[in-house]
Amino acid sequence: MSKISDLKTVMDRIKDGNVIMIGGFLAVGTPEGFVDAIVEKGTRNLTVIGNDTGFLDKGIGKLVVSKQIKKAIVSHVGTNAETGRQMNAKEMDVELVPQGTLAERIRAGGGGLGGILTPTGVGTIAEEGKQKMIINNKEYVLELPIRAEIALIKAYKADKKGNLVFRATSRNFNPLMAMAADYVAVEAENIVEVGEIDPDEVMMPGVFVDAIVLAKQPAIDEVKGGA
Amino acid sequence: MSKISDLKTVMDRIKDGNVIMIGGFLAVGTPEGFVDAIVEKGTRNLTVIGNDTGFLDKGIGKLVVSKQIKKAIVSHVGTNAETGRQMNAKEMDVELVPQGTLAERIRAGGGGLGGILTPTGVGTIAEEGKQKMIINNKEYVLELPIRAEIALIKAYKADKKGNLVFRATSRNFNPLMAMAADYVAVEAENIVEVGEIDPDEVMMPGVFVDAIVLAKQPAIDEVKGGA
Amino acid sequence: MNSREIIARRVGQEFKNGNLVNLGIGMPTMVANYVPEGVEVTFQSENGIVGMGPVPPKGQEDPDISNAGGQPVTILPGGAYFDSCFSFMVIRGGRLDITVLGGLQVDEKGNLANWMVPGKIVPGMGGAMDLTVGAKKVIIAMEHCAKDGSPKILKKCTLPLTAKEEVDLIVTEKAVIQVTKEGFLLKELGPGVTVDEVKKATGAELIVSPELKEMEI
Amino acid sequence: MNSREIIARRVGQEFKNGNLVNLGIGMPTMVANYVPEGVEVTFQSENGIVGMGPVPPKGQEDPDISNAGGQPVTILPGGAYFDSCFSFMVIRGGRLDITVLGGLQVDEKGNLANWMVPGKIVPGMGGAMDLTVGAKKVIIAMEHCAKDGSPKILKKCTLPLTAKEEVDLIVTEKAVIQVTKEGFLLKELGPGVTVDEVKKATGAELIVSPELKEMEI
Question: Is C182 a catalytic residue?
Answer without folding.
Answer: no
